[in-house]
Amino acid sequence: MKLYNTLSKKKEEFVPLEEGKVRMYVCGPTVYNFIHIGNARPMIVFDTVRRYFEYKGYDVNFVSNFTDVDDKIIKRAIEEGVSSDEISKRYIEECKKDMQGMNIKPATKHPLATEEICGMVDMIQTLIDKGYAYEKNGTVYYRTRKFEQYGKLSHKNLDDLRSGERSLLVTGEDEKEDPLDFVLWKPKKEGEPFWESPWSDGRPGWHIECSEMSKKYLGEQIDIHAGGEDLVFPHHENEIAQSEAANGKEFAKYWMHNAFLNIDNRKMSKSLGNFRTVREISEQYDLQVLRFFMLSAHYRSPLNFSADLMEASRNGLERIVNAADHLKFLMKNAKGGAMSEVENGLAAQTDVFVKDYERAMEDDFNTADAVAAVFDLVKFINSNTDSESSGEYLGKLFHILVKLTDVLGLIVDQEEEILEADIEKLIEERQAARREKNFARADAIRDELQAKGIILKDTREGVQWKKA
Ligand code: AMP
Ligand code: ZN
């Protein structure tokens, strides 16, 4: 599998640090408002990356933070006359609702910056002890020039940066040793949330948050660190400087960045007044359409949001869902029995679509081509099934379609109703597994039923079930 590494500016073969495992960190949103559709792009893209690794059999430890202490959150809290905590908690909840609507799997861990301050203070202290940071009047700065590889991710040259940063010298930050130095800890201002530290009552800089949370939940070295392309500099460059100086090890092996989402061919920004929240979109479209739209382009290509493209995505997704519905309808009425010889031959032809799909995904997650392979499969299904098809053959096609669309996070099997007879059968199987002390299987069955909205209760009279 190949993926483009911003660090080397090349597509590289993916080799995990530990066999069969992927450790992945994706920078999450700052929670001071509803997320906008630009924020949704990295969420959808990297959730799809995760799902493909899982499809390949990797065990993925996926960590994505919420930045819940920030100037923008404080500003919003003052405007509303509430605490920062209230603002961040509110928008984390709203963000989670949007994520669910876009079928984004919850991360293995969603750390909150405010709950990890102790670790950040420790990391800053390590950087001071190692000579990579210094304190001035309660503020701690990173000594950028001391980290010799600074600029390796963004491919920037320190001297070019210096001339670009000259303006900083006259903005009152002249207590810094060098204009390139950045903040690790800053003292509180009146009315701001704060934590105690050896240097001042204050709060951490944004960059140190991710260095610490990544280390705490994934270890000092990780496979993939990801986010939008605006994060390459300075955020990710600074994370590398902090983590590698503190831990003495290469931080992340692969750095992945999605390109920006524009709107009507213009940069989406608050000042232009053209930004759209995911919530607004959900009033007009099923969020599956938004997901499908995002995946119709390669993640490293800029993508333009427009009403026309959303309509096209709605139609495209409908074609896939219709094919799944068509199969379900045929399956319900199909005669039992095994595949005929002819069907066997036809089923074998679907390998080509799976191969095309995998080839696309293995080429730096080319979801646009993967979607094209799904459309080929849909076309094949529509022209090679009818009321004479066997249940086994239809089931096989359905299974392939669901498997491939599931990696893209598209739900094509929307109203799957579990039949009472099937529930009873699974409960019996679970009882048998328990008698054989196969508790793993028993638990798996309970989880499978739970996923379908069926809750089991073990009573003295036997197992009872109800719909959640
Ligand atoms: P923020 O809350 O601004 O830190 O952004 C959270 C994530 O959304 C980061 O990975 C950003 O790079 C990403 N992001 C923000 N705006 C856009 C956009 N217009 N297109 C794509 N990604 C974006
Ligand atoms: Zn980050």
What does it look like?
The chain has 468 residues and is α/β, with parallel strands linked by helices. The protein folds into 3 domains: 2-258, HUPs (Rossmann fold, 3-Layer(aba) Sandwich); 280-412, Isoleucyl-tRNA Synthetase, Domain 1, CATH 1.10.730.10; 415-467, no CATH class. The protein has helices spanning 37-55, 71-80, 84-101, 117-129, 158-164, 206-218, 232-247, 278-284, 287-295, 307-333, 341-349, 351-362, 367-383, 391-407, 420-435, 439-451, and strands at 2-5, 10-13, 21-26, 59-64, 133-136, 139-142, 182-187, 202-204, 222-228, 252-258, 261-263, 266-267, 303-305, 454-459, 462-467. The strands form 5 sheets. The chain has a 4-stranded parallel sheet with strand order 4-3-9-10, sandwiched between helices. Strands 5-6-7-8 form a 4-stranded antiparallel sheet. A 3-stranded mixed sheet has the order 12-11-13. A hairpin with a 2-residue loop joins strand 11 and strand 12 (266-267). The mean pLDDT is 93. Bound molecules: adenosine monophosphate and zinc ion.
Task: Explain the layout of strands and helices.
Blueprint: E1 2-5, E2 10-13, E3 21-26, H1 37-55, E4 59-64, H2 71-80, H3 84-101, H4 117-129, E5 133-136, E6 139-142, H5 158-164, E7 182-187, E8 202-204, H6 206-218, E9 222-228, H7 232-247, E10 252-258, E11 261-263, E12 266-267, H8 278-284, H9 287-295, E13 303-305, H10 307-333, H11 341-349, H12 351-362, H13 367-383, H14 391-407, H15 420-435, H16 439-451, E14 454-459, E15 462-467
Parallel strand pairs: 3-4, 3-9, 9-10, 11-13
Antiparallel strand pairs: 1-2, 5-6, 6-7, 7-8, 11-12, 14-15
The structure holds adenosine monophosphate and zinc ion.
